[in-house]
Amino acid sequence: MQMVSYKEFEKELQEALCHLYDPDYQPCEALCAATGCDLGDGMPAVRTAILRAIESLEPPADTPPTALTRRIHGLLYNRFVLKLTQEETAYRLNVSRRTVNRLQHTAVHALAGALWRHSQTLGQVAKGLPRGDDELPAEENTLDTQIPDWLAQMQRELDSLQAKAPNAPCDVGEAISSVLGFIDPLAPKLGIRVEVKSVQPGLVAAIHPVLLHQVLISALKRFGPCVSDGQVAVYARLEDGNVKITLTGATAVRSGLNERTFTSGIPISKDISIEACVDGTQAFLWINVPSMGKVTVLVVDDNEDMARFYRDCTIGTRYHIVHVAQGGALFETIDITIPDIVVLDVMLPDIDGWRLLMRLHEDPATRSIPVIICSVVQEEDLALSLGAARYLPKPVRPREFIQALDQVLPQALAVASRAPASSAEAC
Residue 68 — φ and ψ, nearest 5°? Predict the structure, then answer.
């Protein structure tokens, strides 16, 4: 067997993960060796070993939800154990799809390291894996998992605060204004000046105001001194059903700043996600929090362009789009996302949309979810007779799509308001 490098091994693992549930895929010898499988065992045996390795990466129960080890295990578990898409994983981890894409590289790297180290204990080095750890980056440095005790404690306190008042609304404009007042005495010492450029009127976050205050204070103290002249501009608006607060400022070219420069040391709870990047001479930090009254819309359409169109239509609204391309994933996704509205195409590659509509209407668990049929098939009467709440012919205009959502929203909200009572009766 030809000797492979660690980088080659990691590349082979990435390829195998893409075919994890394909019984006809033949994994390479190095991957079989690292997992303790014989080459003739094929992909089923390797898959079992990989899933065990993912399980071994689960951190202790008291690990903070924002720790990188927990996020890595969550990514691997959702993507390769639950077989969710990147979009569905982003929704479950409460991060952006771009973050999931970036995190997946780190997660696969961690998984490769775990398998590589395990191979050393199995004595598989004689079967083609290099001896020693010369090529294997140090685990602690690679994952950067250490979180200061004070930060972990603060994050636990913030989670506890949110749990004690889970329905406490927060006026985002007032929160930003309050924080500027809090931090004003420190501004000269920090060398920063903050200017609120734009806050969308009526923004209300489904998060405790004190929690958002603390996150904003920490973010400004971290972000401001890193940008040129300490000039920080603040924006806030609805995006994809969430409140997105943006801090931005100029920075020097090749400043050496990166995402962790801005996000390290900022306490967050499980309901908040933070991202940052440096784009040329401009730095950005984004704080995403759930919006009060957020409405989840599950789109079932095999056309990715339509999914992007729906998202573009709902920018700045309370509607949050979740997309699945296969009709067969509909009911599993409903269990995970609990959508308020379903937008269903009829022409799906794996199952007839009419059959899905009938199943949605016949199943007591989904019958009350309003369904909008959006299709090139001109069958409005059939759609309504099978239980659809609305019918939209393609091509659909943005205003028509929003109007359709607005029209079925009262039905969706009525269902949501009855849910607790129904659950109590069931108990």
Answer: -65, -35
> What pLDDT, in 10s, does the model give residues 337-372?
889 999 999 999 999 999 999 999 999 889 999 999
Sign of CA dihedral 181, 186, 187, 190: negative
pLDDT classification of 245: cutoffs 50, 70, 90? very high
Spell out the alpha helix ranges (H) of 134-201.
Answer: 139-143, 149-164, 172-183, 187-190
Give the length of the chain.
Answer: 427
Residue range(s) in the chain whose domain bears CATH number 3.30.565.10 = 149-290
Tokens of 325: 């391309």
Sole residue written with tokens 């749990």: 163
Closest CA to 94 of 285, 298, 242: 242
Cβ atoms of residues 375 and 396 within 8 Å: no
Q: Helix (H, G, I), strand (E, B), or coil: what is residue 322?
A: strand
Global confidence as pTM: 0.50
Question: How far separated are the first and last CA of the chain, in Å rounded?
Answer: 61
- Cβ atoms within 10 Å, residue 408: 21
- Classify domain 149-290 at the CATH topology level: Heat Shock Protein 90 (3.30.565)
pLDDT band at residue 15 using 50, 70 and 90 as cut-offs = confident
Phi, psi of 272 (to 5 degrees): -125, 140
CATH number of 295-418: 3.40.50.2300
Give the max Cα distance, the chain.
Answer: 69
- Dig out the tokens for 327 from the structure: 């009709």
Rounded Cα–Cα distance for residues 138 and 79 (Å): 25
Q: Token match 């900022």: residue?
A: 266
Counts for the chain of helices (H) and strands (E), in that order: 17, 12
Q: Which two tokens stand for residue 193?
A: 């000046």
Token look-up 């303790």 returns: 36
Q: Which residues contact 49 (CB under 8 A, 6 or more apart)?
A: 35, 36, 37, 115
Q: What residue ranges of the chain are covered by domains with CATH 3.40.50.2300?
A: 295-418
Average pLDDT, the chain: 81
Q: Are 65 and 155 in contact (CB under 8 A)?
A: yes
